[in-house]
Amino acid sequence: MADVVGAGVAEGVLQAINAYVDPWLGRSLGDLKAVRALRTDGRQLHAELTLPVPVGGYREELTDALNQALARAGITQILELQLTADIPVHAVQKSLQPLPGIRNVVAVASGKGGVGKSTVAVNLALAWAAAGARVGLLDADIYGPSQPTMLGLAGRQATSSDGKRIDALVAHGIKAMSIGMLIDADQPMVWRGPMVTSALTQLLSETDWGELDYLVVDMPPGTGDIALTLAQRVPVAGAVIVTTPQDVALADAVKGLNMFVKVAVPILGIVENMSTHVCTHCGHEDAIFGSGGGERLAADHQTVLLGRLPLDARIRAEADSGVPSVVAAPDSARGKAYRDLARQTAAALARRSRDRSSLFPKIVVEDR
């Protein structure tokens, strides 16, 4: 404690701050070893904290919460907070190594098409970037790439400045790569599985991503050989499974979830997309696809429900225009839903053990 507490700061101040449990991470600041410096000028406290998640937009909320915690402990000095992020590298599949310069690869997947996986992926990436993280987005859907349109990059072609690596395109603060940035948009991809997986491996490894905290991979739909091969070859720190509430989508989502389990990729959680329909005229919400499906799926598979996202015509319109909701309407209810999803997902990844051995079951041979 002596290395973080400055002169004149009572020990009770540090104890009160360390005892605070962050609601997103579910751990105390003491457990996180978040306090890096703590001092006072006599009237005001000054603290420097570091968290393992993007912190943009969180300082005011955390400052208020910590001041309330200090007040409950009988401390009358007001806290001024400096907040920084230090996003750790998490272990990947045992047979693979993390990609150089990329701290964490997060796969966004679904068991079937049509559940809004790509919309979730792009808004997740943009929300992380808005919170201060360095983010990339790989569109892994070779047959139906949608990210160039959603990011406003349709018609733009990727190039190489050194003749060796592809330069990622940049939109709304994130780096992006897609087969749609290398070929004519109207050209059909009449490729068999091995050609597709080879192309995706090259897109991943031969793109100049620079330094990234997160690379979001918008996986192809389903659990066919392409998705399975990607799950086996791409060093993934965690997977997010997207579903809609109805039973037919949940059944397919289970297949997608189990695919990652089989290749030892941790499941970060479930996203229930199109949870309720929001009327653009009156704001009325209606659970037209049923309710509670995502929560049941998460409970059945010992994971968490990362968020419920609305079925809102404005989300579709914003994505089609190349300015997704997190950028187009960050302070709207739909924008906040995606930002909360990004917080929950970053926290789920941060809660993962950095011990690679924890990813695999312990095999015990009994002598009978």
CATH superfamily of the largest domain: P-loop containing nucleotide triphosphate hydrolases
Strand content: 15-25%
Helix content: 25-40%
Mean pLDDT: 88
Radius of gyration: 22 Å
Sequence of strands across the biggest β-sheet: 7-8-5-10-4-11-12-15
Care to describe what's here?
- With 368 residues, the protein is α/β, with parallel strands linked by helices.
- It has helices at 11-19, 29-32, 59-72, 117-130, 147-150, 193-206, 225-233, 247-262, 293-300, 313-320, 325-328, 333-351; strands at residues 35-40, 44-51, 78-85, 105-109, 135-139, 166-167, 169-171, 174-178, 207-208, 214-218, 238-243, 267-272, 277-278, 285-286, 305-308, 311-312.
- It folds into 2 domains: 11-85, Fe-S cluster assembly (FSCA) (GMP Synthetase, Chain A, domain 3); 105-358, P-loop containing nucleotide triphosphate hydrolases (Rossmann fold, 3-Layer(aba) Sandwich), CATH 3.40.50.300.
- It contains 12 helices and 16 strands.
- The strands form 4 sheets. Strands 7-8-5-10-4-11-12-15 form an 8-stranded mixed beta sheet, with helices on both faces.
- Helix 8 (247-262) links the parallel strand 11 (238-243) and strand 12.
- The chain is globular, with a radius of gyration of 22 Å.
- The chain starts with 10 loop residues before the first helix and ends in a 17-residue tail after the last helix.
